[in-house]
Amino acid sequence: MNTHPYLRAYMAGIAAPSVALLIALTTFILTRLVFHVPIPIERVIIFPMAVIPSAFGLWNIVYVWSRPHRSWPIGFHGALLPFIIVALGSVYTIYGGFLTAGPQGVTWFQAISVPYSLVAIWFLGAMVFYYLVWKYVVGFLNQVMGIA
Question: How do residues 2-19 score in pLDDT, each as one tens digit?
Fold first, then answer.
């Protein structure tokens, strides 16, 4: 019997970000429509909703595939994912006109300036967050799916 481990790995990977994105989308809709924030959030939310769950699923497939060859912890594997997501997101936001990179930092929507030091702290925070999500949530779902 074929147990389809890669399909189960994809399903285990997309579960956590799908639920988180439902919460994020609700927050964005409330921010835009109820509080009338003049930032075009609907143009920005498309990238995370399209890419993040698929990236989690595909990255979990890579983890399951590479397990016989390498034996690193799933949390470390998950902490590497922000490098890919940030690279793709940066290209999308710069070419989409949402982000401008300058000598001192980045500017979102020609209104919000963020220094590079703060971007680096956020990136490190994202790596820690992804480590914890992958270690506890995706690792648990992999065990439930029988692929851990």
Answer: 688 888 889 888 998 999
Output the CA torsion 124→51→76→116 (10° steps).
-20
What's the domain count of the chain? 1
CA atoms of 14 and 42, how far apart (whole Å): 22
Residues 6+ apart with CB under 8 A from 141: 12, 13, 15, 16
pTM of the predicted protein model = 0.81
Could you tell me the two tokens for 128? 């820690």
Token pair, residue 15, equals 């579960």
Among candidates 126, 147, 148, 138, which has minimal Cα distance to 13?
138
Q: How many CB atoms lie within 10 A of CB 143?
A: 11
Instruction: Give me the domain span that covers residue 101.
Output: 5-145
